[in-house]
Specification:
The protein is of the alpha/beta class and 573 residues long. The chain has twelve helices and 22 strands. The N terminus is likely disordered.
């Protein structure tokens, strides 16, 4: 496929992915929230490896307090096509000078090689304290502390034969060699590629943040080249929507970076309107054709911005103006009527009309109602997507609607009815839900727990803002200044296309959602609903009341679900 930017731009973007000099890569000093006492290990204990749960975080100065095993095997198990991960702690009482990781490869009985990705876990500040989150290859920004988590990740090939694959993890700590055997059990079931997943995943993108961090002009060739790996990571999690902004700042400047307009609106001197869709077109084409989201819907925000201000260039005044326009008034329709008609004509010409949605975020019915009247008069073919606090007579008719986690119990009959109509019903979490969530202070297992909850309630998926709406420097701190949002509320990955423990946990949850769906479909096809009884019983723990409670055992629930999934898969073979 021919790319719309030069190879020179690609090389420049590749260089920029390594953080520019003005963004030094280091780990902040700070209070460790998990200061487990070092007295649990005898003085003089040599550097060693300790296997621990992938669903837990470990502090930089927090020794695991797990008995040091003389022998252990790092064990994985998963379906073909699934991503599986394990965590091991590198513990060194004397402190770290250097960690060197050797390549790790697993080999099947027939000699096939499966690579293992190795990521040292870095720390940043969230809620005022250090928390482990950043997955960063073998980067060694400081290696402070006496603990360094290491994550091993395997993408199991979809065409590999079921069975076992084995290898060895080898590394050196301060010159001391350490090693551990690694074993992967490959189940016969197959998870399809992410583009075929049915989970309706809607994670909002923020292109402006990428341009700011990497210090390149918005919508330049370099900007698109830099966005490619971030968006490929998003697509690899099964993303189903593209976030677009029809106006400047649909969210009233609530994040560090603005959300700029993708359409330039001009009011000519004669009172007519002109619309430049060139940025919108390039963004949608980029995400659709180059990233692979060809069937993704395009959520166009702007009809009901939080500030109700609408910026455009006024030729007569020779400047940008931003009047406040209230839905239900003639001025509001005078602005949006021609705009919507031009939008419909444009996306129809591009072949995108059936994918484009007018998107709104947490607006009351008092605003929805008059705005939708304008839509019906000027763009009746466009469907609506919205995040809402609760269902209403208006929102239940939207094509794609996401409701707050706290009302999931009420959504079951509605979701079933809407699903039969081909409409999507999901839930979302944001700053308003203390738990379960994906904050810096959230238990790591919470992120994974969210998607089985969607499966339990028969919902179509999950929505979260935002993918990479970064703070000023998320390597230094995920805390907002001023404190608009809980730490790490608005980003799930890091600059330089670095993943996070939270992102991988959420992605694991999406895979679990898909496995549940596939097993349910297989049981129905075979007429064997009884095979799913243990699975459905395990899913019964994933309720709002339990999940939002202060003592929810998220990890224990997930372990029970893992066992039930294994049992169901074996019963249906």
């Amino acid at each position: 496929m021919k790319l719309p930017f030069s190879l020179l731009s690609l090389f420049a973007a590749g260089a920029l992915l390594a953080d520019p000099p003005r963004h030094p890569v280091y780990e902040p000093d700070g209070k460790d929230p998990q200061g487990r006492p070092a007295a649990t290990l005898e003085a003089g204990t040599k550097p060693h490896l300790t296997p621990v749960s992938m669903r837990q975080r470990f502090g930089r100065d927090a020794l695991s307090r797990v008995p040091i095993p003389k022998r252990f095997t790092l064990g994985f198990r998963g379906w073909r096509g699934e991503r599986v991960s394990e965590q091991v702690l590198i513990e060194c009482l004397a402190g770290f000078e250097e960690v060197r990781l050797d390549p790790c490869v697993l080999r099947t009985a027939d000699g096939r090689e499966i690579p293992v990705r190795l990521d040292l876990v870095r720390y940043t500040v969230g809620a005022g304290v250090l928390f482990a989150d950043i997955l960063d290859g073998d980067a060694q920004p400081s290696l402070k502390g006496v603990v360094r988590p290491l994550v091993l990740t395997v993408d199991i090939p979809a065409d590999v034969a079921p069975g076992e694959a084995t290898g060895t993890l080898s590394l050196r700590v301060n010159g001391t060699p350490l090693s551990a055997p690694v074993a992967l059990t490959i189940d016969p079931e197959t998870l399809p590629p992410p583009r075929e997943w049915k989970c309706h995943l809607d994670i909002w993108q923020h292109p402006d943040a990428v341009a700011r961090w990497h210090d390149v002009p918005m919508w330049s060739d370099a900007h698109f080249a830099l966005m490619r790996p971030y968006m490929e990571r998003l697509a690899d999690a099964g993303q189903k929507t593209i976030t677009a902004t029809l106006i400047d700042e649909a969210w009233d400047r609530q994040t560090y970076d603005a959300f700029g307009p993708m359409v330039r609106v001009t009011k000519r001197k004669d009172g007519s309107w002109a619309y430049d869709f060139s940025v919108f077109d390039r963004w949608v084409a980029f995400m659709s054709e180059e990233i692979g989201l060809r069937d993704a819907t395009v959520s166009c925000y702007g009809l009901l911005p939080w500030s109700l201000t609408f910026a455009y260039h006024d030729e007569a005044q020779g400047r940008t103006v931003a009047p406040k326009l209230t839905p239900g008034t003639p001025d509001y329709e005078a602005f949006w009527g021609p705009y919507l008609e031009a939008l419909v004509a444009h996306v129809r010409g591009k072949g995108w009309e059936d994918r484009v949605r007018l998107a709104m975020d947490e607006r009351p019915d008092a605003l929805f109602r008059p705005a939708l009247e304008v839509v019906r008069r000027h763009a009746p073919s466009l469907k609506i997507v919205a995040a809402c606090n609760a269902p209403s007579a208006i929102t239940t008719d939207f094509d794609d609607c996401s409701y707050g986690l706290n009302i999931c119990e009420r959504l079951v009959p509605l979701a079933k009815e809407r699903h039969a109509q081909g409409k999507f019903t999901t839930f979302y979490v944001c700053c308003a839900q203390p738990r379960p969530n994906t904050f810096a202070h959230s238990a790591l297992a919470e992120a994974e727990w969210l998607l089985p909850a969607a499966a339990h309630y028969g919902l179509d998926g999950f929505l979260r803002w935002a993918y990479q709406s970064w703070t000023e420097d998320p390597f230094v701190s995920q805390d907002y200044r001023p404190a608009n949002w809980p730490a790490a509320d608005t980003s799930l990955v890091y600059p330089g296309n670095r993943s996070s423990l939270r992102w991988e946990a959420l992605r694991n949850g999406v895979e679990t959602f898909e496995k549940i769906r596939l097993l349910r479909e297989k049981a129905a096809r075979l007429g064997r609903p009884e095979a799913l009884e243990p699975l459905e019983a395990a899913l019964g723990a994933f309720t709002v009341a339990r999940g939002m409670g202060p003592d929810c055992p998220y990890e224990a629930d997930l372990i029970t679900l893992d066992e039930a999934l294994l049992q169901a898969a074996e019963a249906l073979r």
